[in-house]
Model the fold of this input.
Amino acid sequence: MFHPPDCLFFLAVVAFINGCPAAPNAQTAKTGSPPARWIRVESPNGLERRDLDQLAAAIPTLAEAVAEQHWDAVVKSGDRQHETRVSGTSPGLLSLLHEAADAKVQSGRFLAEQDVRTKAAVAVISVPLGKKLFKAGDPVGKTIVVGERELTIVGVVSVSESPRIDDLISEVYVPVTVVGELTPQRERRSRGELGRLWLKAQSANEVQPTREVVERTFHKQHPQVEFTVRSAW
Done:
């Protein structure tokens, strides 16, 4: 038989348990879990922006279609410089970075569609690179030099590091349409316009059908080209 204090304690515990929301599953609880709806398309011969346009036209239900090319470059600001990875990409990459690495815009903004259309001389940099090049203060509005091109910083992003997504994270993000102006011509010829495409299906159930459409479409357009279509990780 419960004594009054014991009874009150028991009722409080029951009320607490009944009021608690269900525990999140392992995938949603774990920061940086591999996004289940993303597909990556790669080719050792390189890809072209028209490949992305053709896939987007063949699969109008895609939630995101992202182009990317990355390379190592020396990034300069005044008398400071740092060799790091630079990615030419499109705005949708932020969605992938957020799902895979809990990316957040800490200051300013990420790349916009207008930046891509107008070949804007802008860049988004990582928090660590900002600290290396600009000891104090907000880097937004300041400039860096990549190749021979001066770029205005429009945003600063933070990401959670993970060995599973190391090949996704860069320290500088620029519009994919300015990649040709930032890299030597010999490098552009050797690797193609794009390094990979990221496609996001509308739901987990649509991932496999989407992959099959991607494979058929790409093989039809490039029957002699080697390529891979697989889950993001």
Summary: Residues 4-19 form the longest helix (16 residues). Confidence is low (pLDDT under 50) at residues 1-33.
